[in-house]
Amino acid sequence: MRIAIISDIHSNRVALQAVLADAGAVDETWCLGDVVGYGPEPNECIEILRQREPRLICLAGNHDWAALGRLDTSDFNHDAEAAALWTRNRLTPSSRAYLESLPERVIKGDFTLVHGSPRAPIWEYLISAAVARANFALLTTPYCLVGHSHIPFIFYEAVNRQDLPTVHTASADKMIRLPEQRLFINPGSVGQPRDGNPHASYAILDTGAKTIEHRRVPYSIKETQRLMEQAGLPQRLIQRLEYGL
Ligand code: ZN
User: Fold this and answer.
1) CATH tag for 2-240 (out of 3.40.50.1000, 3.60.21.10, 3.30.565.10, 2.60.40.1120)
2) Staple 205 to which of 3, 31, 142, 187, CB 3.0 to 4.6 Å?
3) Exposure of 188 in the CB half-sphere (CA atoms within 13 A)
4) 7 CA distance to ligand 1 centroid (A)?
């Protein structure tokens, strides 16, 4: 089965469409949360995703919950909070009902899917080796797909499980075979990359061939920025897109 692994779309419809076009025909689409927040087209992104039902798995992320008012945005920085409140007012009843329905964790065959980490699916950033090791201890499947940090990477569990896992930054267009070791895999962010590369990031998983390939896709950043200006979203959020930060 060929599966598009996407995450952190953040209401960036232009980036989402570019990624789905690049992925081409897939059997399923797995989205690791943060469909909304930051960007200008939350309802449009939800509609595009839902066209893929029933071959779609979509999880809840912290920004999806913030848009629903399910969590306190005072932990957010000022711009993220402003965007969350803007999104909350903009969601249609059907978009809101869809976000309400999203699960925090899904287990599918060899894969656990969460937005943050197995230990704290909505909130925890799985970005250090120590946090990865603590989460490997809780993992019940060989592989786990995470989003949230917007950084494409793979953590490999150490052969001796007491040792720290090793991290590999994912290079684009390099296909790797899934090893015997357990992995945390982050596909990076579709709508707001933060690894210094502004191109949309995602991954293609082939469960038959047991391979994963990270990919980068250019899209019209200018068009998303124009829509954000029109929406009156914070300048810092508009500018960061062109730097991938
Ligand atoms: Zn995010």
Assistant:
1) 3.60.21.10
2) 3
3) 32
4) 8
